[in-house]
Amino acid sequence: MAGGEQMDALVRRHGGVVSRAEAAAAGVSRHAVQWGLKTGVLHAVRRGVYTTGPIWRRATPRLRHRLEVLAQQRVHPQLVACSTSAAVVLRLPTPQGPPAQPQLTAARSPGDGGRGGRGRRGGQVARRALLTDAEVWTLRSGIRVTSAVRTVLDCARVWDRLWALALADAAISTWGIDPAELVQAARARAPVPGRRKMQWVADHARARVESPLESLARGIVVLAELPEPRPQVWIRTRAGSFRVDLLDDTNKVIIEADGKIKYATAEDVWREKLREDALRDAGYEVVRFTHADYHRQPEWLATYRRAVRRSRRRPGSAPVEPVDPG
């Protein structure tokens, strides 16, 4: 009978999940598998595909979703993770975490006829879609997933514009996508529902964006038809040069995206206050953006507009340095 350590080694050797057939080929009997499930040594990710109990219990929701995708593909190798599942697999931001069930597509060729469809079966949301070879990636983990460009375009059609922009910015940063490639791919897509939204996201995706918060704030400003802020800009002040998250050069307004762990200590808060004072002395307004502001966009946008008006009344200006290539 296979013990916990043996099962752990077997599962890890197969990328995180092992099928009943793979377990049998390694000498693990059906009785041993049943024993493992009963004792918690194994966890059934789906019928006939398992991971270890400790791996499952320690896994984050995103990792569990990756294991669920891999388990489905172990049974149906032709399936490809798509849409929000693909975003999770590619370690890109999503609005509300992973979907409840894996979203998978079976590639169809132009000669198949008909249109793509979708349905639910076996713990998955299944689709059929036209996919080129370049639009399907196989990761080192063995997971088959739509390419970063295809994933961005698919999600942009159905997601909120702001989160789709955050996804696109992250894909550029994480996977080295050329923004021009994204624009070209969006324009080449056949007319489909959500195409205008997809094109908007592609047109406004940028490099050097470092967090979803920055994308959300920039998107709110752009949708308000205000000048688009540039990401990651260095500004020279009396206290030295500081890099800011977003800068509207036209109106001299800085947006700082504040995550939960940005200021871990009182010293961090004090240092940031001195930094902000120096930026204000250099002629800039500073507006902060948090996760809470995404859920109260009209109020935050009103605050931003007030900063723009104050800045326009300020005399003088400060030089803006180019982005540090390092």
Can you give keywords for this protein?
326 residues; alpha+beta; 5-stranded mixed β-sheet; 4-stranded mixed β-sheet
Written description of the protein model:
It is a single chain. The chain contains 14 helices and 14 strands. Helices cover 46% and strands 20% of the residues. Strand 12, helix 12 and strand 13 form a beta-alpha-beta unit. Helix 6 crosses helix 7 and helix 9 packs antiparallel against helix 10. It has 326 residues and is of the alpha+beta class. About 2% of the residues have low confidence. It folds into four domains: 55 residues, no CATH class; 87 residues, no CATH class; 55 residues, no CATH class; 110 residues, 3-Layer(aba) Sandwich (Endonuclease, Chain A), CATH 3.40.960.10.
How much of the residues is beta strand, in percent? 15-25%
Q: What is the fold named in CATH at topology level of the largest domain?
A: Endonuclease, Chain A
Number of domains: 4
**Mean of the pLDDT scores?**
89
Short description:
This protein is of the alpha+beta class and 326 residues long. It contains 14 helices and 14 strands.
Topology:
Elements: H1 4-13, E1 18-19, H2 20-25, H3 30-39, E2 42-46, E3 49-52, H4 53-58, H5 61-75, E4 79-81, H6 83-89, E5 103-108, E6 118-121, E7 124-130, E8 136-138, E9 144-146, H7 148-158, H8 161-175, H9 179-188, H10 195-204, H11 212-223, E10 230-237, E11 240-248, E12 253-257, H12 266-281, E13 285-289, H13 291-294, H14 297-313, E14 320-321
Parallel strand pairs: 5-7, 12-13
Antiparallel strand pairs: 1-3, 2-3, 4-5, 6-7, 8-9, 10-11, 10-14, 11-12
